[in-house]
Amino acid sequence: MGSIAVISDIHGNVTALEAVMDNIKSRGIQTIFCLGDLIGKGPNSQKSVERIRESCEVVVLGNWDDFIQRPVEIDEVKWHQDQLDKDALNYLSSLPFHHDFYMSGKYVRLFHASAKSVYHRVVPMRDTYEEKLAMFDNTENINHNGKLPDVVGYGDIHAALIEPVKPQKTLFNAGSVGNSLDIPQATYTILHGDYLSDRTAPFSIEIVRIPYDVEKELSIAREMGLPNLEAYALELREAKYRGPFKSKI
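Now predict its structure.
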């Protein structure tokens, strides 16, 4: 048996990230995968990138990681761009769209938002069964070698879940480390099973909630001059979405 920690949507919140990393270490888990959105929203995008690079075996591209590399006209996004050095931006541009592997005989696929795009959002509590089933499709973004996944894990919506979609298919959301919008705690997921084994064996998915010092994080944000601080505070304290980037959480 082995375990993989799956983290996502850190969004520059290093206070939450360190709390999650401490919990992962306390469990003796050495393999960590990240499902993107390392940066933006919170104050410490640069430190977040550095910490993820040194700690994670696999990192996939998120929507923030993608659009932060482009020219923008939004002052708040420009502020986050200015926090990142050239090396960090080059690293973000190198991230793959997805990562596939076997675990306990199940073929697992991980990406940030959906099989279609890092910008195509799927919210199981709202979207149709067909939208959820499409998460298991092989699309032009995926190097699949003809294989379809048994388990799909993603981030993006900042709300953790585990849901059977059809017989022997499971969809899970890893939740958000730094910007949880279902409960105001840092959230990540653990996959338990035989990593890299295509032989059938016990397999389970665990959602983990970690309390952390939200006020410390907000103090850091205040000192660094984070724009739209009041809205950021509402998200961290009450898990309420603040806008204005509804399509780019």
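The chain has eight helices and ten strands.
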